[in-house]
Structures are given as C-alpha cells and as structure tokens.
Amino acid sequence: MRSEASWGLKAAALGGLLFLHLPILLIFLYAFTTEERSYAFPPPGLTTEWFAVAWNREDIWPPLWLSLQVAAIATLLAMILGTLAAAAMARASFFGRDQVSLLILLPIALPGVITGMSLRSAFGILDIPFSTWTIVLGHATFCIVIVYNNAIARMRRLSGGIMEASADLGANSFQTFRHVLLPNLGSALLAGGMLAFALSFDEVIVTTFTAGQQSTLPIWMLNELVRPRQRPVTNVVAIVVFAATFVPILIAYYLTRGGSETAGMGK
Amino acid sequence: MSSPAILPAKGLADRLTGTFWRRPKLLLALLITPPLLWLGVVYLGSLAALLLQSFYSIDEFSGVVKEEFTLKTYAELFRAQNLDIIIRTVVMATAVTLACAVLAFPIAYYAARYAKGPWKAAFYLGVMLPLWSSYLVKVYAWKLILAKEGILGWAAEGTGTSFIIDGILSIPGLEGSSLSTSPFGTFLVFVYIWLPYMILPMQAALERVPNSMLEASADLGATRNQTFRTVILPLALPGVIAGSIFTFSLTLGDYIIPQIVGDSSRFIGLTVYQLQGTAGNTPLAAAFAVVPILIMLVYLSLAKRAGAFDAL
Predict the structure, then answer these.
(1) Which of A83, A205, A221, B7 is most solvent-facing, going by the fewest CB within 10 Å?
(2) Closest Cβ–Cβ partner in B46, B139, B153 for A119
(3) Consecutive H or E run containing A7
(4) Which residue in A has a C-alpha nearest to residue B40's C-alpha?
C-alpha cells in the first residue's frame, strides 16, 4: 500500500508548504522598496536607506527595550514555575491531577482576548495601575505551559533509575538535582525558554489589554499598521521581530530534535 | 574499617532529603504550590474578575460602572446588532475551520505517510516555523499581498485573471475596493494564520493509522479510494476535530486580523477590544468575552464525544 504518492497529492502538499512560507519573503522585499506611500508591486526601486532611517527613529527604541525586558522577565518566571509544575506532575499521581494539567493548559487554549480581558477586569476591580509588571503578569501566565510541555516530555523519557542510583550513591536531593537532573533537563529547559521568549516578544493580543499607554514593539507595529507612515520602516522592524522569534525557534528545534518531544508541538 | 551502610545525615540538605523520602507528598506540595498559586491567583482570579465584571452594568448617563449585580448587561448581548456580531464571528470561524481542514489534509497526509528522512524533517520544520514565527509579521505580509496595488493584483493583471478577483469582490457580502478591504481577505488571512494548528494534530492522527490496516483493506479487495474513505478518513477524524478546536477557538477570539484586513465589520474579539478601550464599557466587554468561552465549552463537549482528546 505504501507506494509512491500521486502527483496530485505531492503538488497539493508542496503547494501548501509554499503557501505557508512565500508571504513572509515579501516582508523582506518591501523593506528595500523606494515607495513609501503604497504597497506597489513590483517595487519601483530598491534602497537600503530604510535601515538607517529605522535606526535613527527615536520612537522605536523604547518599545524594543520594553519588549526585551518583558520577554526576559516573563521567560525567567515561566521557566521556574513551568519546571516546578513539570517536576510535580511528571511522576506523581494525586487527587486533582487532571484539573491541574487543565489549569496549566487553559491560558493558551482559550483565545487571547479572554485572557487579556480577564486581566484587564482584575486590574480594574483591584485598581492596579498599568506598568511593566502588568504586562509581565500576563506573559508569564501563558508562557508557563510552553516550558512545562518541554520539561515534562523530557522528564517522562528520563528513567527513574538514575535518580535512585544517585541516592544510593549517597547524594542528597539537592545534589541529585544539581548533578543528575539538571544536566539531563538542561537542553529541554533551554528550548522551552527559547520558545517562551519568542512567544512573549511577539505577543500582541493579551498585551494590548495589559499595557495601558505603554508600547511594546508589537504594539508599535500594530499602530503603524493601522496608521502607516514610512511603511518600509515598519518592514525593517518586522524583520527584527521576525528574527527575534525565528532564531530562538530554530535553536529550540535543534536542542530537542530526535526526541519524541521535539519542541513546539504545544503552542 | 568499613563505613556503615547508611551514612549519617550531615547538614540541613541531608536531613531534608530524609524528610522528602519519608514524606513524598511534602515534596510534591512544595513543588506544585508556586505554579498553582500563580495560575490560581493570576489566571483563575482574573477569570473570576471577568465574570464579576460582566454582571455589573454601566450607567447610561454618567458612563460610570455600577458595581451591583444585574443581568442587564447580558440582556444587551441579545440586541440585534450584537447578535449580528456573534453570528458573523461563528460563521467566519466555521468557514475558516472547514477551509483549514481541506488545505491541511494533503500536507498532513503526505508528511505522515510518504515523507521520509530529511523530507520528514523539512515538513516538520516547514509547518513549525510558520506556526511560531511572529503573528503580526504574518498578518502584515498579507496586507502587502492583498493591497490593490500589491503582488496579487499585479499577478492577476499580468496573467489577465483580474476578473477572478473582481468576481469575488462583486459577490454580495464580500464587497470591497480590493481584497484587503473585503471580508474574503479577512477569511484568507485567518486561514493562512491558523493552518499550521490544523496540520499538526491531523498529521499526528494519520501517523497513528497502522500500515497493517491499510494492507488488510487492500487484501480484502478495497480500491485506493475505498480504503481512503472507509479506513483512513474515519481514523483521521479525531485529529481533524482536535485541529478544528484550535482554528475555531482562535478565530472566535482574534481581533487583530479583522482590524487590519477587511471591511472593518465587527467580530467578537474586536468588539471586546473597542468596548473596553474607547467606549469604556468594561461590563459589556466582559459579557462579550464570556460568549467565546460558552461557545468553546459546547464545542469541546461535542469534540470530546467524538474522541478528539485522544488525538491531542
């Protein structure tokens, strides 16, 4: 039965993949166009001046800085909380285990607008003013599941025997954690962290509800999309955002490739 | 001089290890408490706040939120204009889900049954990268594509197929000056953005169909088409439903895409965003946000009955 695929199937599969990838290439092309008022194709001319213009635009740097800050803190929090949750859930079976795993999954399973609106309602009721921390609060919440998925997949694959061996050889829990568990988990945690960073750096739906007047890089981009000025500059920033998500994803893939838990299945 | 079989406990770390060994529940509790506290307080707390907020109402004259229990805000959802928004969103989510299923199937099928070695990895990365790469950048790319002067219009003009685009734009309900201002454009972008979410569970389900079943089907005299319809498709269905949970739910809540591509008709997500922002009507925004939760609960219970959760 496993003969060659028919030409129709091959064409549809390859066509589908091209459909997924070609649009992104246009972003790169339009960063070099000389036309700044419309999206004319083909571009009337090519130039690299927009990179210099973007570099000198002062309204881009604060959002970039804020995005990096938020992504870094949210990733750190998610890595701690996600690893703890994975360690608890990997082996133990306890009352309410299914409910806990649903709770971890929920922030990413429900549409972002619900998470955003929920946080917004809570800030409203508790009179919490918007700050970097209100953004971090939302981001860390939906990043936990990313780290958790990566960590728990690796923990399930680890044999329990090595922990027992470590204990038999006289190591206490902390030494076992430091010298046995952590080296084995390391790449999975790093992959989870990378994906969490990419997700947080790029997030816009929840962020618009938790940012108030602040502007992260995706919010800056969104404003430019709604009210464009110097359109190619937006493309330059889009390339930066794209790279900031693309590179961590590739690293995460290479860190976990070959295993059954290849990173990224759980977005 | 032999050392004793059990080493004496030295220091706090050793003593704690002993305690954890004797009482594993204590270690479990210590591990699970911080993440549970975070999710319980921040996430469930916020969801509770959302529910609470949706039972408040807004004073029509002063625009101040009245913090008293009322069902008035929910009643507003049933106004014709608001029902329109809900129906439009559900129709869009259904259309997007169906289109995603059709487009995703060949990719998932090929990747699961034919791709081997480096091609398998290529297909995996080929779906994973668009899934994870920047959402806004992808939406922006489509604004470039669908714009009147953009690449699609250019290609249609060059090949003399502009009549197709004009034809689509003249269909009642899909009118617009270009695809980027037509509801059809909104639909296209939704399909593009959520397609990878459909491919992955579909592929996982297809990979689990054992080859022996296909051989058995062939041995029993079924043609390729019969095997496909009576063996592969039913076994892949849970994967399709699992994927549809994502495409449906994500379309229900999205508010960026209809804001950037389309005729600015309102969807649930966009309405929530506008109500809480410019309009300042947080209670109604909260009530609107409860709608996708309810729809998803119904959808999930139906999906569960179809066995989709085994495919997640």
Answers:
(1) B7
(2) B46
(3) helix A7-30
(4) A103
**Residue A260 to residue A149: CA distance in whole angstroms:** 12
List the structure tokens of B174: 């899909």
- Residue A267 forms part of a structural domain: no
Quick one: pLDDT at residue B3?
60
Interchain contact, B49 vs A30, CB within 8 Å: no
Confidence of residue B4 (pLDDT cuts 50, 70, 90): low
Is there a contact between B31 and A88 (Cβ–Cβ < 8 Å)?
Answer: yes
Tell me if B175 is assigned to some domain.
yes
What is the reported pLDDT for A259?
Answer: 56
Average pLDDT of the segment spanning B111-127: 84
- Residues of A with Cβ-Cβ distance to B126 under 8 angstroms: 17, 20-21
Residue A76: pLDDT over 50? yes
Nearest chain A residue to B213 by CA distance is A1
Whole-number Å distance between alpha carbons of B230 and B239: 16
Q: Residue B311 gets which letter from DSSP?
A: G
pLDDT digits (tens, 9 = 90+) for A51-73: 888 888 888 889 999 999 999 99
B245 in Cβ contact with B308 (< 8 Å): yes
Looking at the partner chain, which of A113, A141, A199 has a beta carbon nearest the beta carbon of B253? A113
Assigned domain for B213 exists:
yes
- pTM summary value: 0.85
CB A263 within 8 A of CB A154: no
Domain around B196: 72-311
Those residues with Cβ within 8 angstroms of residue B196's Cβ, 6 or more apart along the chain or in another chain: A20, B127, B128, B130, B131
d(CA B70, CA A132): 34
**Percentage of residues in chain B having pLDDT higher than 70:** 96
Within 8 A of B250 by CB-CB distance, chain A residues are 111
Instruction: Tell me whether residues A249 and B132 touch, CB distance under 8 A.
Output: yes
Quick one: average pLDDT of A22-51? 81
What's the CATH number where A222 sits?
1.10.3720.10
Q: Evaluate whether B116 touches B129 at the Cβ level (below 8 Å).
A: no
Beta-carbon pairs below 8 A across chains A and B: 274
Chain A residue with Cα closest to B48: A118
Rounded distance between C-alpha atoms, residue B102 and residue A206, angstroms: 30
Amino acid code (one letter) for B260: I
Mean pLDDT for B2-6 is 62
Asked if the structure places residue A17 within a domain, the reply is: no
